[in-house]
């Protein structure tokens, strides 16, 4: 089939645009942060961990605020922004086999669930807060799960096309949400009276929750890494020539070293893992590190495919 | 007749629905001269914007001087039987015609570009604002449609008509007397990336692995092509708008962050224009 060896060169080919770029990476990061914040918010009112009750209202509102930016980004990124409603005309117009339609429904209903949850948390209605909290936490997970599925269901996008994709996304969401919430709670503490402040001990406890997520995320990434090293030719190329090539900064340095390994080290050292500024530093690293993951996740395969 | 295979993994051509037509194309690469007449005819007829192609010709060189060989291969939408673009399209803007065409409805398309991400063949593009006739659809996805407007009137697609070497053969593969059915039956044919499971309907004869392989395209770009790639990504109007083109000469920390910041600023700056043009 091959004339001689594979030596040779490509002389001429069409160039292809990258279809999705930084705005959508930012969108993935924001949805993740929102879902992660909301998970923390429900710990107190839904899962009965009393000490986190103080964070619930603020965390839920943070999740709502982050989710408010999402439609702006998504709709502006469309070629025809005023046609966004085509996604919502079920069942005649929109296509239910497309994960993007599921996402449109989730993004529409998830903030509504959170708004009700916030309302009942504010008025300390335990029963209703719990009911809406359960509904909203399911929607939060679904909202972020579908973003993973959107990337997963493209057979030619190899690191994305695997069943681990949505779980990786959810884990990233969980840790980046907690990280961001830690920083925001600390900033909030500067502006409110001492009685309503969230104690440093709770921030450290949240960092401990984040630590479990980091370990799980590293475990998943290690599995991805293993598969890519043993993978078919394209996976091999994606790992060594794309992720460890032009995308080495978002992938290796920002996500893995800055966003996972250093925070992991900080959070397992007993002397510093409950100290406020170390915790905040680790939180910042994790949050920014996950953004690096969103960048390579969206764009690395397009970089590879763009040459074909 | 014996020993013929379809695709690398021996997938037979789909017959589609019983009794229906199944339009397919065979490209005899032994006869293709790489003249780009198909590219020119298509680009002119369909007002394809600068930087986008419905059909294009890949060229590669193998061997060492003086024993070198030039390979050419026209690429277009493969009108797949299991099209991932159709499955992923959230608004049913793209669909599979019973006769085998994968078609695009511009009035439904929202320009989300999911189909472009889903396509393993890079066969889709977003129409820019820069079209000769402003009444033509803009900012929606577009693709090769096997010239359905010609085929339904009994004419062959433009690339087939214009092919100087007679390399492109088009017709109903379910009709055993058609030229395409006879060609596919008589020759060993290959499809592109059959492992993707899309069941492509463009059959190549004499396909050379180097040129059909995305790995080869990635690893063996000529220096000139590599420079042009960066220039294209840097200068293309649509690239700015889509905010995702990575210029691969500049991928250090400041390079990546710089490209991200630049793209986001541009994205925000062009946002109002996008909304206004979306009205029309």
The structural domain count of chain A equals 1
CATH architecture tag of chain A? Up-down Bundle
The gross shape of chain B turns out to be: globular
CATH architecture term of the largest domain in chain B: 2-Layer Sandwich
Describe the main β-sheet of chain A briefly.
none
Q: Give the beta-strand count of chain A.
A: 1
Low-confidence stretches of chain B: 1-10
Can you describe this structure?
- The complex is a heterodimer of chains A (308) and B (280).
- Chain A has 308 residues and is mainly alpha-helical.
- Chain A has helices at 22-45, 53-77, 99-122, 126-152, 165-191, 200-229, 233-243, 248-268, 276-305, and one strand at residues 8-12.
- Chain A contains nine helices and one strand, in the order βααααααααα.
- The longest helix of chain A is centred in the C-terminal third of the chain and has 30 residues, at 200-229.
- The two termini of chain A are 20 Å apart.
- Chain B has two domains: 23-217, Alpha-Beta Plaits; 221-277.
- Chain B has helices spanning 37-45, 84-88, 114-118, 148-151, 158-162, 179-186, 209-212, 214-219, 223-235, 237-242, 253-269, 271-277; strands at 23-28, 55-64, 67-76, 94-96, 102-104, 124-126, 141-143, 168-172, 189-190, 202-205.
- The longest helix of chain B has 17 residues, at 253-269.
- At the A-B interface, strand 1, helix 1, helix 3, helix 7 and helix 8 of A face strand 2, strand 3, helix 2, helix 3 and helix 7 of B.
- Strand 1 (8-12) of chain A pairs antiparallel with strand 2 (55-64) of chain B.
Summarize the structure.
The complex is a heterodimer of chains A (308) and B (280). With 308 residues, chain A is mainly alpha-helical.
């Amino acid at each position: 089939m091959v004339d001689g060896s594979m030596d040779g060169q490509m002389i001429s080919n069409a160039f292809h645009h990258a279809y999705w770029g930084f705005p959508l990476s930012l969108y993935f990061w924001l949805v993740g942060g929102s879902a992660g914040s909301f998970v923390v918010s429900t710990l107190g009112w839904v899962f009965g961990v009393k000490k986190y009750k103080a964070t619930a209202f603020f965390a839920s509102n943070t999740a709502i605020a982050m989710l408010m930016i999402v439609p702006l980004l998504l709709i502006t990124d469309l070629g025809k922004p005023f046609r966004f409603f085509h996604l919502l005309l079920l069942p005649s117009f929109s296509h239910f086999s497309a994960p993007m339609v599921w996402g449109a429904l989730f993004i529409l209903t998830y903030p509504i669930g959170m708004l009700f949850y916030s309302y009942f948390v504010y008025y300390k209605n335990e029963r209703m807060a719990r009911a809406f909290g359960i509904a909203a936490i399911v929607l939060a997970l679904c909202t972020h799960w579908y973003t993973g599925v959107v990337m997963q269901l493209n057979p030619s996008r190899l690191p994305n096309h695997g069943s681990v994709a949505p779980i990786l996304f959810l884990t990233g969401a969980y840790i980046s949400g907690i990280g961001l919430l830690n920083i925001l709670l600390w900033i909030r503490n500067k502006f409110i009276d001492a009685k309503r402040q969230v104690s440093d001990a709770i921030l450290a406890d949240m960092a401990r929750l984040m630590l479990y997520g980091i370990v799980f995320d590293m475990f998943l990434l290690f599995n991805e890494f293993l598969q890519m090293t043993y993978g078919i030719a394209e996976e091999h190329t994606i790992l060594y020539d794309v992720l460890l090539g032009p995308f080495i900064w978002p992938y290796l340095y920002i996500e893995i070293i800055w966003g996972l390994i250093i925070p992991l080290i900080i959070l397992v050292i007993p002397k510093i893992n409950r100290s406020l500024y170390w915790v905040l530093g680790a939180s910042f690293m994790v949050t920014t590190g996950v953004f690096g993951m969103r960048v390579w996740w969206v764009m690395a395969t397009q970089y590879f495919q763009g040459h074909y | 007749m014996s020993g013929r295979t379809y695709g690398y993994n021996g997938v037979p051509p789909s017959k589609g629905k019983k009794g229906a037509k199944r339009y397919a194309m065979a490209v005899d690469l032994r006869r293709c001269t790489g003249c780009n007449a198909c590219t020119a005819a298509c680009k002119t007829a369909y007002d394809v914007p600068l930087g986008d192609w419905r059909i294009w010709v890949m060229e590669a060189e193998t061997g060492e001087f003086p024993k070198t060989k030039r390979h050419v291969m026209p690429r277009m939408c493969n009108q797949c039987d299991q099209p991932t673009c159709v499955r992923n399209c959230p608004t049913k803007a793209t669909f599979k015609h019973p006769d085998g065409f994968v078609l695009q409805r511009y009035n439904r398309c929202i320009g989300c570009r999911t189909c472009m991400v889903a396509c393993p063949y890079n066969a889709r593009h977003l129409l820019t604002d820069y079209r000769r006739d402003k009444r033509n659809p803009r900012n929606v996805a577009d693709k090769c449609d096997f010239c359905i407007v010609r085929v339904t009137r009994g004419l062959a697609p433009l690339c087939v008509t214009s092919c100087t070497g007679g390399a492109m053969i088009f017709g109903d593969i379910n009709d055993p007397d058609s030229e395409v059915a006879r060609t596919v039956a008589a020759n060993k044919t290959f499809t592109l990336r059959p492992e993707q499971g899309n069941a492509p309907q463009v059959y190549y004869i004499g396909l050379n692995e180097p040129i059909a392989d995305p790995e080869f395209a990635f690893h063996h770009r000529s220096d000139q092509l590599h420079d042009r790639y960066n220039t294209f990504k840097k200068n293309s109007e649509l690239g700015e708008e889509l905010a995702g083109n990575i210029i691969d000469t500049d991928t250090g920390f400041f390079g990546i962050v710089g490209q991200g910041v630049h793209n986001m600023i541009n994205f925000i700056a062009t946002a109002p224009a996008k909304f206004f043009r979306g009205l029309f």
